[in-house]
Amino acid sequence: MMRDSETFTANADRCREEAASATLDNVRDRCLRAEAAWIAMASRSRRSEKARDERVAAVA
Description:
With 60 residues, the chain is an all-alpha fold. It contains 2 helices and no strands.
């Protein structure tokens, strides 16, 4: 099963690719903003996943 952080990172990669192939400045800028947002979400998700994994390990 794919973790949320992996999904968010995949979306960021897709936005980066779309930005690279964009011919219009506004489209490129929109894709880069979306990429930054996905990267931030992935980072927060990784922190949450790490904390969750540590809690599960402490209980086990």
